[in-house]
Amino acid sequence: MVLDQPLRSFFMQLAKSKPLNKAAKKWGLKFGARQFVAGQTLEEAMATVIDLNNKGLVCTLDHLGEFVTEEQEALDSTEACLDVLRAINETGADCNLSLKLTQLGLDIDESFCLKNMKRIVQTARSFGIFVRIDMEDYAHCEQTLRILEKLRNEYDGVGTVIQAYLHRAEEDVRSLKGVPLRLVKGAYKESAEVALQEKALIDENYFNIIRLHLDNGSYTAIASHDHHIIEKVKTYAAENRIPKSQFEFQMLYGFRETLQKELLEQGYKVRLYVPFGTDWFGYFMRRLAERPQNIAFALRGFFSK
Q1: Do the annotations mark residue 100 as ligand-binding?
Q2: What is the DSSP letter of 259?
Q3: Is 117 annotated as a binding residue?
Q4: What is the pLDDT of residues 140-174, one digit of tens each?
Q5: Domain boundaries along the sequence of the chain
Q6: Which residues pair with 133 in a beta bridge?
Q7: What digits encode the pLDDT tens for the residues 29-61?
Q8: Does 98 count as an annotated binding residue?
Q9: Which candidate in 81, 154, 237, 303 could, as Cys together with 242 as Cys, close a disulfide (CB 3.0–4.6 Å)?
């Protein structure tokens, strides 16, 4: 079940509100956000990662933030990402790093953002840690892929995300053969000019690009809570003798814990996307937009304060 379009649009607009995002940094983790955000500090997040590792789950950490417009804020975010890499290395956690380019200054200047990314990638390479560039809204898609190409000239332990609802998704997957990709349906509100609007068509294209990336021998992260898609992937991989070592299932921290356990017991790798930090509001609003049942958590959090 998904939210009706007006309500979904309402939450997506809230996610972009700079005043609300600024205010949320002072609120702490309110309105049920703690269900989906692993704390505000790196120490809290690493404790969560270690606990998840002990349960057999691998992780990717995301220091929350996006749409930065001040250079110093972008530099601070770069340092935060470097701190995450150091913490992963020091603890020996089974964990990657996920990040957003707008957090690192993409909206300020592309070359400035690339410079920040190179610092991160160079450190990740020294530790042997994989870095995932999250795909943001369509306006940043081409820039993201351009920066990815430049980074992979220096280090192949970096990948990105392709969103199935975009008309260009299949073409992008074909051009990124051999690149580790996280494949998702897509969480931003986009126009019909650039993105599919109907759930059935999005689901069809999602499985299509999963199959395409698996067939060309590339490592594939299937990021979905949709058990129908997950079952189709499991069946397709078994029928086509695609080894479990070639793909993993990814889910968001705080979601579908029973399904995670079932997949682990069946021998599949499951990676959790673990967000943390004070800049949690936009991320949380998008989670509310995606699933109506999440609103219940928010209301409980609101009325318990």
Answers
A1: yes
A2: H
A3: no
A4: 999 999 999 999 999 999 999 999 999 999 999 99
A5: 5-20+44-303
A6: 99, 160
A7: 555 566 788 888 999 999 999 999 999 999 999
A8: no
A9: 237
